[in-house]
Amino acid sequence: MFSSRHQASSRIFEHNLRYIPGGVMSLNRKVEPAISFARALGSHMWDAEGNRYIDLHAAFGPYLLGHNHPAVNDAVISAMRDGMSLYGTGTTEQEGELAELICNNIPWVESVQVLNTGSEATAQAIRLARAYTERDHIIVMQGGYNGWHNDVAFNLMSSLEALGPRRSPGEYPKVPMSAGIPDAHRDLIHAVNYNDLDSIRFVCEQYPTAAVILEPVLQNIGIVPPQPGYLEGLRKLADEFKFVLIFDEVKTGFRHAFGGYAQLSGVVPDLVVYGKAIANGFPIAALGGKRRIMDLVADPDPSRRVLLAGTYNGHPVPVAAAIETMKLLLANDGQLYRDLEKKGAAIENALRNIGADAAGPMVVSRIGSAFCYYFMDHVPVDWHDILEHHDFSRDVTLRCDLIDKGVYAFPLAVKQMSISTAHTDADVEQVIDAMVPLLSTAQKSRDFVPTA
Ligand SMILES: Cc1ncc(COP(=O)(O)O)c(C=O)c1O
Question: Structural domains in the chain?
């Protein structure tokens, strides 16, 4: 499991296994090679052995400004030095400043609440949608990830065996991602293909649907972009069937544009959820949208009121980090997004240029600072497409080889790679120099089989 290069990581993992079930604190971090990282700065991470890597994982997405950004860290340290604390009563000036920054810069967020994690925020968004519509059924995307809770922990990277043939219009068999989810929840969740409006209509005609929740770009499985008209069609279906359209912009929000993919697409959700890049790695999430839905958390009628609470909501440390991050994102009219676009395009062009030299079919998909390749002859439209056409084992092999070359890509197939403002042109060159030869040659394969 460990190469001789990772003796210290091995010792840490063996130690932690004695006390932590699975040995890691979030089980989706359990991958091979099981490297323990000890520190990170800017575009780099160092493992327990002292090896340096260019980071393309970005901890699943938060690091848009790079690790340990000095201004963000200073804002956090100042908040603590100034004696800010978690008072647990009333409001604070800082949480008002944060909410104003979001609402003033994202017009479809009329009001906003902050929570600690993306999963909390999607859970609350779904509860709000159910309260607002007085309906229970929820539509999720096959292959999407919206958190770990009972309403969404279904049909992630399900195997072809579990899913069977493509269903359109229709819904897939329910494939729970966790034991312990009551059947009652399962009955209320419907998984359909992304980019498939007919299947949304199919479910809505059969079940009173409270919400469709989706990543506007399906980024749990790389970068699967919406087909022209898909998001607009969803908006129309939401208006026709009166369900709440929830954009889960936990990964896309603040990374692709300050206002996330809604800003780029011009399609406005009813509710939107942010996390990750909102505070460049500090734990905070936001849930916002139409005031008439959001106001249910403070409805004077207790039978209509939605419970929204959390001991750590609005904690001054992540709030300070989020305010500073947002100021940096907004500076110079969002210049950093234009800079990231150039660096992302340089990587995309280099990978595309491999062309006929590629060891097999390959396409590149990218939005701004996030990109991925698929070993298939077209950019996928959904997870079923990927299952049928992508070469998973080649993908994992390439990632492991990249890690050996000092470029850390998460060693799980179809996970997108992300750069930050801390990635220099030299880093970009190094990434290209590492990737291009690997993509141009066939490698010995390391196994990956999608699990249910
Ligand atoms: C699109 C999306 N939604 C929700 C979540 C859940 O966020 P968290 O891990 O902060 O609970 C994630 C996490 O990866 C995500 O990518």
Answer: 4-68+333-440 (3.90.1150.10), 70-327 (3.40.640.10)
Ligand 1 pocket, mutate which of 126, 247, 276 (most atoms under 8 A from CB): 276
**pLDDT at residue 341 above 90?**
yes
User: What local confidence, expressed as pLDDT, does residue 1 receive?
Assistant: 46
CA 360 / ligand 1 centre spacing (Å)? 32
**In terms of pTM, does the model score above 0.90?**
yes
Residue with tokens 């001054």: 316
For the Cβ of 119 lying below 6 angstroms from any atom of ligand 1, the answer is: yes
Distance 119 CA to ligand 1 centre (A): 6
Max Cα separation, the chain?
Answer: 66
Mean pLDDT of 316-327: 98
φ, ψ dihedrals at 385, nearest 5°? -60, -45
Q: What is the band of 390 on the pLDDT scale with cuts at 50, 70, 90?
A: very high
Distance 118 CA to ligand 1 centre (A): 5
Show the CA angle centred on residue 283, arms to residues 71 and 37, nearest 5°. 80
pLDDT over 50 (residue 231): yes
Dihedral of the alpha carbons of 357, 360, 365, 368, in degrees to the nearest 10:
-40
pLDDT per residue over 32-54, tens digit each? 999 999 999 999 999 999 999 99
Is the CB of 113 within 6 Å of ligand 1?
no
Q: Is 251 in the pocket of ligand 1 (CB under 6 A)?
A: yes
Ligand 1 atom closest to the CA of 249, numbered from 1 = 1
Residue corresponding to tokens 């999430």: 285
The strand pair at 271-274 and 285-289 is best described as: antiparallel
How far is ligand 1, taken at its centre, from the CA of residue 355, in Å?
A: 34
- CB-ligand 1 contact for 216 (6 Å cutoff): no
Question: Ligand 1 pocket check: which of 27, 63, 114, 250 to mutate, most ligand atoms within 8 Å of Cβ?
Answer: 250
Flag whether pLDDT at 451 surpasses 60: no
- Tell me the C-alpha distance between 218 and 215, whole Å: 5
Q: What integer pLDDT is reported at residue 3 of this predicted model?
A: 61
